[in-house]
Amino acid sequence: MMVLFALSIHRTEDERVFFQQMETLNRHGFQTSVVSLIDDGLMDGTFSLKQKLAHLIEVFKRKNPSIIVGDSPIVILAAFRYKKCYASDVRLVYDVTEWIPSKKNMTNCSLFLRPFKWIALSLFSCLAGFLTTAFIFGEHHKALPFHLVFPSKKHLYLSYYATFNKLKRFPIRQNNAEWKLCYSGSLTNEKGFNKVLSVIIQVAQIRPNHSFVFKLFSSEKPAIEHLLPSNIKLDWCGYLSFTDFCSTIGDADIYFDLRKIDFENTRCLPIKLFYYMAAGRVVIYSDLKAIPIGVPEIEKFGVLVNPSDEKQVVEALLKYIDREDFYVEHCHNAEFLARNKYDWSKIEDSFVDFINKVRNE
After folding, report:
1. Can you give the pLDDT at residue 42?
2. What is the CA radius of gyration of the chain?
3. Which residues of the chain fall short of a pLDDT of 70?
4. What is the pLDDT of residue 177?
5. Per-residue confidence (pLDDT) for residue 296, from 0 to 100
6. Using N-to-C axis directions, what is the helix angle for 193-206 and 310-322, rounded to 10°?
7. Pairing of strands 302-305, 282-286
8. Are the C-beta atoms of 236 and 221 separated by less than 8 Å?
9. I need a labelling partner for 346 at 20 to 30 A (CA). Which of 1, 159, 309, 352 fits?
10. Sequence-separated contacts (24+) of 76-79 with Cβ below 8 Å
11. Looking at residue 275, what is its pLDDT?
12. CA 102, CA 106: separation in Å to the nearest integer?
């Protein structure tokens, strides 16, 4: 049986789809395939909805899947048209991991038109929910609108757990004279990059006898060397493939994510949190509502902070630097939780069972 993953928000080699869901189904005897509108070049703003739908339907016709798992309303609409015209027995699964509508959808949209676009996209999302056979939800908050509108539809909660064994293990460095402080993501104020930079500079100035490495995973290299004190070295790693990311991310001591807390961000569970946990390291994160819901034990291996209160963030970082026992304990807690509770292997069987139930729906 063929399960086709059709994506418009994610790339072909998405860590959750390609390296977890597809690998798991393949091991259990399914055939799998994936198509991404991003990688096929149709999401650059020059293609119409009609062209995107036509492209997807042609892929579906070639692959002849039994189940189509889609990540957006566009994909679900294309899958439904394919079902209606060519394969009435195909099953549709909407894998909800992103807000639609979201802030990204409002980019370059005038204030006057935003309410209308918001309503249109909300209705489009509801339409996708109506057309789909079943839902997969990556987290609590993003499931709520669909539970409200479609309370009786089959669904599965499938969180963003990392695959523990895919990450290279690095020993916990103790008696640190040099601290590797890591940020991974976009270099924007909205994602909190400037806050992270400011906090690291302040701590380096407060602890001049320590050396610091600012380990940065981003596609763009920032011109910040002139801002850094002499005891901070920038280690820009660029953009890495998923496998390279897994093999290098553990070579750091503390991970930061100080994104702005707003209505949307606070209801998003960051997937990288689970990879930092699996690396066996501590985290300093913005106090998002979604985190303690998704990971109730967060305070056993990290600190949630108000990103606007840099003094609080500085104090959290200094506590790890000055108290080695506290730091080491939190690292051990992170690895223990990732290995024994928040590992993909703990939930992959439920995913396979769900796909089988959908097939027999």
Report:
1. 95
2. 22
3. none
4. 81
5. 98
6. 50
7. parallel
8. yes
9. 1
10. 76/128, 76/131, 76/132, 77/53, 77/124, 77/127, 77/128, 77/131, 78/6, 78/52, 78/53, 79/6, 79/131
11. 97
12. 7
